Amino acid sequence: MDPSRRARWSLFITALILAPLVALANSGGGPWGHSGDFGEPGCEGSGCHRTEPFPPGHGSVTVDVGPYVPGQKQRVKVTISDAGGRAWGFQMSARQLNNPQRQAGTFTPALDDQFVWIHCADGSFQPCVNQLEYATHTSAGTRQGIPAVVVTFFLDWTAPATDVGPIAFSAAGMGADGDRGTNGDHTYYTRALSLYAPSNQPTLRDGGVVNGASFSPIAPISPGALVSLFGDKLAPPGFQRQVTPADLIDRQLPIELSRVGADFYLPGPPGNPLPAYMLFVAEKQMNVQVPALPAGFSGPVDVQPVFNRGQGSNEVRGNRVSVNVQQRSPALFTFSDGKSVAAVTPSGAPIGKPGQFPNSRPAARGDILLVYGTGYGQSIPPVPPGSLAGDPASLAGSVSARIGGVFLAASDILYAGVAPSFAGLYQFNLRVPAGVPSGDQPIIISISQIDSQLGVILSVQ
């Protein structure tokens, strides 16, 4: 398995829910032609804002747009994050990637949004005859004085009537300090691609739905488990996005991420599909959490990728692949080498050979380690799929563990349950027993006598 894929899950384990990440000298949106792309200057180059230094990762702007169906309208979301923002603005344009001076489709304000208006390149309003269009904030849309951290703008976009190739949506987003001056304002830029849907339908590979920890092509998955979906054209080339706090509502994971989702279909008469909960999406991989399934269900289910979820005739669905489900599918996460168990000390230092990872060291007998897995089933009290766990909750089944063939005493399994503030992730606090041999030792954590995958090791000194 590509180590970079494992690295994505390793990153997820340690940083799924990050600290929060994103204008007002001109509160009406202009001047036009300052999206920071297609050879145009950015907002700070307009004279109404100045460039301000800020730490990397201080904020961001993102554009969520799906593949386009000829002539169909879809809702576009612009999200600006800035921890110090007190006023907000954006400017966005849509161009043919192969001919960036050509307008691509048509913007209109969303009917339920008074925060966006559309201008033509000469400053007039629509219709923009033979001119470029710019979507931007209104004065009300700046939400002056609101320390929101994350602000969203919605607008509608009608796609071209024919295939014009990839379409680039370029946006400048502003998190301003709200003093109506030109200093202290942060500008961020992004580009999102929309592909022609009829020739870019998402495709899952046969056997491409696997446990996100083991990546086993033959092991089953289970309700609430974290799984990876592998395929092609799951997102535009080079695109990738991980869930952020801005995507959560009431500590719930979204069912679409940048217009990409996945549905689970139960066997039997046709019924409504069950949407997965989204964690990560890229061109060839999605990471999701399996939705809740009927109590006690086991057997095959079909999984299908979805573009433009909820967009009516603009929705695009890919092929279905089958995967077997059982009530528990325990597996341990590994670091990016695919073998070393994802174990850390209580202070967060990784366990491994010296130099294998930054600040890594082997485990010592008597050490307390935190180990992570998925697919271990229900907890008490239960945490529904899609929800971030709150307080600690222990697993409902009986848990056993062994390292180097040595079974841990019950007193050495200090905790076995959900990982607080995560979804679908389980945490095991283990004390390394005295009798474990030195070297790379196999580690297995079982639930109700079902073992985690073979081949996972823990380095012991």
**Spatial separation of the terminal alpha carbons:** 28 Å
User: Shape from CA axes?
Assistant: elongated
Number of helix segments?
Answer: 1
**Fraction of residues in helices?**
under 10%
Q: What's the mean pLDDT score?
A: 88
Strand content: 35-45%
The tally of beta strands, per DSSP, is: 31
Radius of gyration: 24 Å
Low-pLDDT sequence parts: 10-26
Question: What structural class should be given to the helix and strand makeup?
Answer: mainly beta
**Tell me about the biggest sheet?**
6 strands, antiparallel
Task: Explain the overall architecture.
By secondary structure, the protein is an all-beta fold. It contains one helix and 31 strands. It has one helix at 3-15, and strands at 59-64, 73-82, 87-96, 99-103, 106-109, 116-120, 133-137, 150-158, 167-176, 186-194, 203-211, 226-232, 240-242, 260-265, 274-275, 277-282, 285-289, 299-307, 316-317, 321-325, 331-332, 343-344, 368-374, 379-380, 394-395, 399-403, 406-407, 413-418, 426-431, 439-447, 457-460. Strands 3, 4, 6, 7, 9 and 10 form a six-stranded antiparallel β-sheet that branches. It is elongated, with a radius of gyration of 24 Å.
